[in-house]
């Protein structure tokens, strides 16, 4: 009798954080890390999401402002993302997918119809108002 066991996981990070060195000319998948001794709390803060986006520049009436290692260097290698989406009245985001990712919607102002389709083709929708969150 033989018992076999297998486990698959992503490896643990080699360091607590890898603040992006956005000035480096080294090319890799992502950004190289700053020396941890030069990292400050400011590397983990951004004001990029505090400015409403231009919804009239998009035919669907929405604008997405992303955080990236360029405007939030402490985001580098953390495996998370955050964005601000602004809508014009009647605006919409076309159906899209997020392979190996999830989306959380938090409404600051107004009403938004949100939803998703699961792998069995079941539709889940909800109307959100200010203060509501949908996963």
From TrEMBL:
Localized where?
Secreted, Extracellular space, Apoplast
Q: What is its main location?
A: secreted
Which cysteines are cross-linked by disulfides? 18-33
Q: Which PROSITE patterns match?
A: GERMIN (PS00725)
> Which residues of the sequence carry a binding annotation for oxalate?
98, 103
| Assigned GO CC terms | apoplast
The Cupin type-1 domain extends over 47-135
The family note in this entry says: Belongs to the germin family.
Which positions does UniProt annotate for Mn(2+) binding?
96, 98, 103
Asked if the keyword Metal-binding belongs to this entry, the reply reads yes
Q: Which PANTHER family match?
A: GERMIN-LIKE PROTEIN SUBFAMILY 3 MEMBER 3 (PTHR31238)
User: What name goes with this protein?
Assistant: Germin-like protein
């Amino acid at each position: 009798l033989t018992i076999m066991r297998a486990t698959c996981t992503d490896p643990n990070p080699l360091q607590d954080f890898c603040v992006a060195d956005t000035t480096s000319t080294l090319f890799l998948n992502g950004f190289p890390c700053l020396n941890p001794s030069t990292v400050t709390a400011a590397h983990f803060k951004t004001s990029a999401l505090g400015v409403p986006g231009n919804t009239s520049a998009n035919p669907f009436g929405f604008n997405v402002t992303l955080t990236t290692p360029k405007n939030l260097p402490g985001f580098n290698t953390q495996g998370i993302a955050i964005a601000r989406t602004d809508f014009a009245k009647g605006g919409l985001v076309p159906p899209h997918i997020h392979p190996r990712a999830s989306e959380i919607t938090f409404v600051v102002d107004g009403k938004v119809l949100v939803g998703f389709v699961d792998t069995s083709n079941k539709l889940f929708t909800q109307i959100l108002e200010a203060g509501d969150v949908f996963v």
